[in-house]
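BUG: 3D viewer hangs when loading the predicted structure for this chain

Environment: internal workstation, default settings.
Expected: structure renders.
Actual: progress bar stalls at 90%.

Input used:
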Amino acid sequence: MSLSPVAASLQLSARMITLNHPAAMDCQVYRKSVSRTAHTDAPGETIGGLPLLGGVPVLSDEDEADVDWDPVLPEDQIHAKCLLLGGYSGSSMLDNGQGPDAPALQEARIEPLAAPGSPGYFELSKGDLIMVMPGGGVVFTFAVQDFSNTLMLPPYVPKVILAAQGDLTYIPSVSAAVDNR
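Structure tokens produced before the viewer hung:
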């Protein structure tokens, strides 16, 4: 049951606009998976149930050195449509209007091609890798940094905050996907 039929209608409208907009680009979504073998509960290998990496507890997959990027759907499929909405700038942190140097961020709407609730539908997560393919064999890579929302109703019409990534062809699964374009 939805919180509001108006918000649900806005979500459906935003989805249709994203999927059918002439500037929307095909994209594929990759999710990080930890390649390191599972930890054991042997003394000295865990602290509080967390695996150790160089003697320090691993709190998130960002701390992992041995990771791979797996597509959320088969690699030969287009997973979603991406509509870049423009630059994103968070509020300044200081009274004088200056803030820390921040990476160039993009705001975007990304919608899976599959309908919600159907096989092939997925939800984006922070840290996902987005490969945007505008055409002609060109591939831009972004990482999902955060989500924003103009409706102030968290589950509805989220915008994705993307950070541009450099050349990621050193990752085998990404390199193979780029070579196939």
